Write a sequence for this structure.
């Protein structure tokens, strides 16, 4: 049995669903239209995709989870911090909805929703981050943050720096 099949079977039995394979966790190079400078991150929430503009006609495309109904937003910002295995403190709105949630979840904990890395966005409580719930990538699932597979946030983390422009559209 191939390793890929063995992993798929184990994930199906253990978690009740398939986790992304390595092939699914890599970005796609795609044609891309828009008036954005190379290095800009463009998040199209309606598509549930994040694009890293490579040149005027191409971008690297990643699947993402985005804000659920009433939590989606649009705007222009920039990355203002980069963190590996960050601790997480739930914002007031999350704590209000889930009062039993701890005030801080340590980095590296399987309960930490930030995954292996996070890049905070200027001007708010939002971040582009990994996830400990890979099945949520591709859905309308968050309080406004952008969720990525851990392999994808690790890849993007290496490609961008603090100050990178981020454009979020609906």
């Amino acid at each position: 049995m191939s390793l890929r099949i063995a992993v798929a079977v184990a994930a199906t039995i253990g978690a009740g669903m398939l986790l992304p394979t390595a092939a699914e966790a890599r970005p796609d190079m795609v044609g891309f239209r828009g008036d954005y400078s190379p290095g800009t991150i463009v998040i199209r929430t309606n598509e549930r995709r994040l694009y890293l503009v490579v040149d005027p006609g191409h971008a690297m495309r990643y699947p993402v989870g985005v804000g659920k109904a009433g939590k989606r937003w649009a705007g222009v910002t920039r990355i203002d911090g980069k963190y590996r295995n960050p601790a997480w403190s739930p914002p007031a709105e999350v704590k209000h909805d889930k009062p039993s949630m701890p005030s801080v979840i340590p980095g590296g904990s399987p309960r930490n929703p930030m995954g292996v890395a996070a890049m905070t966005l200027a001007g708010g409580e939002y971040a582009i981050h990994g996830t400990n719930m890979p099945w949520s990538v591709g859905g309308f699932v968050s309080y406004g943050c952008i969720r990525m597979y851990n392999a994808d946030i690790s890849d993007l983390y290496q490609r961008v720096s603090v100050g990178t422009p981020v454009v979020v559209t609906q």
Q: What stands out?
A: The chain is about 15% helix and 30% strand. Residues 2 and 109 are 30 Å apart (CA to CA).
